[in-house]
Amino acid sequence: MRYFIFQIKNSIEDFKRNKTRTLLASLGIMIGVLSVVMLIALGIGLKNYIKGQFENMGTNLIMVMPGSGFESGFNAGAFTSSISLDERDVNSLRRISDATYVVPVFFKSAVIESEGEEEFGYVMGINEEFFEVMNASAEYGSILTKSEVQGRSKNVVLGYSLADKLYSDPSLAVGKTIRFNNQRFKVIGVIEKKGDNELDGSVVMSYRTTYGSINPDKTFWSIYVGVNDEDKIESVKLQAEEALARRYDKDDFSVSEQDELLEVVNQIFNMVNGVLIAIGSISLVVGGIGIMNIMYANVTERTKEIGIRRAIGATRGDIMAQFLTESVLLSGFGGVMGLLVSALIVVLVHPYFPIALNFFAVVLAIGISTLIGVFFGVFPARRASSLTPIEAIRYE
């Protein structure tokens, strides 16, 4: 233990003598660790965000989408299709006896205006069953009724965060008028806060009201089918596929259970995380090469010091341990700095964008920076330890 502490003290003393060089060497590793950790944090955040979307929905849910959707994984045709879902498909799915509810969902971005304030948000066209699907209730005011949906009412419900941005206090939104797409709508309620969910930033209205300038094609982004009896989910899924297959080719739509979607989301993001780590690791390798070059320069500058130490009894192992310790400390310092900067960025960005750190990212950052120090430090350390005392002392 004393030997280890002695090597660390020696390394720190050398760092103090060469502060600029030390900072430059650590900077490369810091940037590398920062890149890897931020890419992992982004992947984790997006994964948690999408999982949150599904978990906010009710259980026993089947999702119908145009295109092959999530079922085929992550490919070019996953979310593109020659078909669009419409009300004929909704009516067809309603004829499935064990389907408890069928919810068409129209979705688009929009700029929402009210009382001189403008905010970016989303417009969701749904029916009255949507609120049951999303486990959503009104925090203030009321939600849409069946008569309002069928009657193409101009009444709308706001997501909590959108109401907060427009009026500072969400409770003040009820009774106000909002404008978008050159139309006016009356706010009758504010949905309870749902967390990381598009619903929080949306204007929710009758899907029939969107027909016209908002949704001229009268199509839907997806259709949710709910089943009360868990044992009948597979049966309903097969019936939904058969109903849609009468109108479309099987490759033009997807019918997926909630658990299947979550499983595929996990697979996709695990793959994406692996790719992101590989990309970020390139900058770590560059940082490691920088440390190796710095350590070679240190060996050259301190050749006489190495000779004197060898002459008074230091072994090759002692010399190698000294330079290897310096390399690991340099890399470790850069890794810790990269981790701290990453944590600061996550804290600052998280309220506005889905990004998150976990224990895996922290351990990976520390572990990689240590391994970089060992791997790229061992070559200069071996060179230093291979010098003979006489050769080193005579070096000019």
Automatic annotation (TrEMBL):
Q: Where is the MacB-like periplasmic core domain?
A: 22-241
Entry protein name: Macrolide export ATP-binding/permease protein MacB
Query: Which spans are transmembrane here?
Result: 21-46, 275-299, 328-349, 355-379
Q: Tell me where in this chain the ABC3 transporter permease C-terminal domain is found.
A: 278-389
User: Which InterPro entries does this one have?
Assistant: ABC3_permease_C, MacB_PCD, Macrolide_Exporter_MacB
User: Which stretches are annotated as coiled coil?
Assistant: none
Q: Which GO terms describe its cellular component?
A: plasma membrane
- Topology versus the membrane: Multi-pass membrane protein
| Localization annotation | Cell membrane
Organism for this UniProt entry: Candidatus Woesebacteria bacterium GW2011_GWB1_43_14
Just give the chief location class.
Answer: membrane
One matching Pfam family: MacB_PCD
Q: Which GO terms describe its molecular function?
A: ATP binding; transmembrane transporter activity
Q: Which PANTHER family match?
A: ABC TRANSPORTER PERMEASE YTRF, MEMBRANE COMPONENT OF TRANSPORTER-RELATED
Keywords in UniProt for this one?
ATP-binding, Cell membrane, Membrane, Nucleotide-binding, Transmembrane, Transmembrane helix
